[in-house]
Amino acid sequence: MEPPTVREVIRRLVLEGFICTRVVGDHRRFAKGNLRVTVAGKPSEHMKPKTWKSVQKQAGWM
C-alpha cells in the first residue's frame, strides 16, 4: 500500500483541528495543543514511507 499524498495528509490534519504555524520551502509545521507535526514535500507527491511513519507518530495516529 502506497502512503497518501502530502495534500491528503494536510487535509486530514486541518480537519482534526491542526493549524499551519509556519512554512519554510516545502516543509509545513502544524500545531494543535502540545502536538507539533512537520509535513515535507510537494502537495501532489506521495509521502516517503519513513516520512509518513514520522507524521503518524507526531500527530498521534499510531
Can you describe this structure?
The protein has 62 residues and is an alpha+beta fold. It has one domain (6-59): Metal Transport, Frataxin, Chain A (2-Layer Sandwich), CATH 3.30.920. Helix content is 34%, strand content 29%. It has two helices and three strands; from the N terminus they run αβββα. A three-stranded antiparallel β-sheet has the order 1-2-3. A hairpin with a 2-residue loop joins strand 1 (19-24) and strand 2. The radius of gyration is 11 Å and the shape is globular. The chain starts with 5 loop residues before the first helix and ends with a helix.
What's a quick, concise take on this entry?
The protein is of the alpha+beta class and 62 residues long.
How do the helices and strands line up, and which of them pair or pack?
Layout: H1 6-15, E1 19-24, E2 27-32, E3 35-40, H2 49-59
Antiparallel strand pairs: 1-2, 2-3
Distance between the termini: 17 Å
| CA-based gyration radius | 11 Å
Number of domains: 1
In CATH, the topology is named Metal Transport, Frataxin, Chain A
Multimeric state? single chain
Average pLDDT for all residues:
95
Give the low-confidence spans: none
User: CATH H level: which superfamily?
Assistant: Hypothetical protein
Cross-sheet strand order for the largest sheet = 1-2-3
CATH architecture: 2-Layer Sandwich
